[in-house]
Amino acid sequence: MSVLTIEGRARLLGDDINTDYIISSRRKRDTLDGDVLKNYLLEDLDPGFAATVKPGDLIVAGENFGCGSAMEVAVTVVLAAGIRAVCARSFSRTYYRNAINNGLLPVECDTSSIAEGDRLQISVEEAINVNNVTTGRTIAGQRIPGIMVGIFEAGGLVPYFARHGGFRS
Amino acid sequence: MSGKTISEKILSAKAGIDGHAGDLAVCEVDFALGTDASMPMAIDYYQQMGGERLLYPERLIVSLDHYAPAASARTANLHALTREFAAANSIRLFEAGNGIGHQHVIENGLTGPGDLAVGADSHSVTYGAFNAFATGIGSSDLAAVMISGRIWLKIPESIRVEFEGSLPAGVYPKDIVLALLKLLGSDGASYRTLEFVGGGASRLALEERLVLSNMSTEMGAKAAIFLADEKTERFLRERGRNSFEAIAPDPDAIYASTLQLDLSELVPLIARPHLPDNVAPVSEVAGTRVDMVFLGTCTAGQVRDFHEAHAVLKAAGGITPGVQLVITPSSRSVMERLFTDGTMADLLAMGALLTTPGCGACCGTAGAIPPDGANVISTANRNFKGRMGNSTASIFLASPATCGAAAATGRITDPREFLA
Predict the structure, then answer these.
(1) Which residues between 105 and 124 in chain B have a beta carbon less than 8 angstroms from any beta carbon of chain A?
(2) Which terminal residue of chain B, N or C, has fewer Cβ atoms less than 10 Å from its own Cβ?
């Protein structure tokens, strides 16, 4: 994988952040437009959260991020808010897949030492490392498995399919 | 090399490889589902990917179930978009008002033993009850399936779940799955398949197995598969599906872990707000005030579920004043059968509110929404804060019988109090 670096400010969330929290089902029946939906990001958990998100922020969470529904808008709304990576101790499988398929970087790593507002630098090569600039500590992330590397590198499943016309086997 | 689990067998066969857990497999898909909540995005991805025609339109169904009936111009337009796409591409569509997509799959025998089934809805794991490898996917993956007929999957490790014994009176499949949630936690089966085996599993009726497969996604499971037996075969044959090749694990298959559960030791359980794994015996929260009771959803929308709730309600003398009982049959066919056998007339006479068959009330997209601060007890599979459309409501999850008992008393109540 070619080198990719993502930098930003850590926004701390807890365990079991489900897709309904990320974006409520009742919002997505009104629109699928990320620029509108981003105003309701995590509203049921913290109504003030969306207003404080700045493009370049990074989500940092605990266990089981993205559990619940397989709805993909829970990924596209995060991207629409200008967030390019989510670091979590673990992800639900559907969220992980949908993230890769849309070019949002899911980093599975031990997030326990990261504090709200820490400056993070994520480098993606063969391995993924999260450098906490604020504390000087580097955390190793899990590699992206197999075919997902190709999909993520292409920018997501749409450009991957547009380029290859199907799955490269 | 060791033998194979059900997942290893099905995904190997679909990919044409000799695969084991951890291997990546690009698999042929036998059946796929889209809904009004996932199809509009899937159509968008499909077009962006350059999709021109579906490779296997006959393998896809679309159900208008999340926004039924459409309560705004916006959702009506999502329906219109999905309808037009289905018509233009010869896709079988189940109209709004006919019920939940998963229920259509069940009622029409659309998937069965050995199949790889995917659905752009997390509760597509339900079809594991029929010995299929069934899993939830997003809209982009569905678009790729529409174009290529295939999906890539990592072959998961499996957890062997052995059920012994039989359920005592007043205890139901929902209590089994809540017991599993308590044991495993909300990510205890992440990236893994649950394989349900043992005498306790084979004694369950098909409709009861569905409850367990359905809610396994609340433990993060990728699939949740029962063995196929004569009950599976009969159920599917009655629904017009005659090809039948049961997939069983090899005796020397390797499992990530094994769990044993004696069903005869279970008691009525309840998930407290706001996570499905926040499980306790009903006795521990008994007496808690209940404002609204919800019967329905893809995990408890079978005729037998309504019968179980109705039996308790009837024995207890009906709905207590001040409690709102909302009933959402999972399909038109379930609704019609409840009308035919008199159950619905009885529930309506007690004061129940009947809503359109579908998913709406469960996820707050259509149907009845609880008021501020309400305590809701529900047969659904999720109780996340805000799940039913009001983030100040508290949702408890329990069996239809426990929900029936709560509707009768206005408090969380052990249903065994009303069962002779």
Answers:
(1) 120-122
(2) C
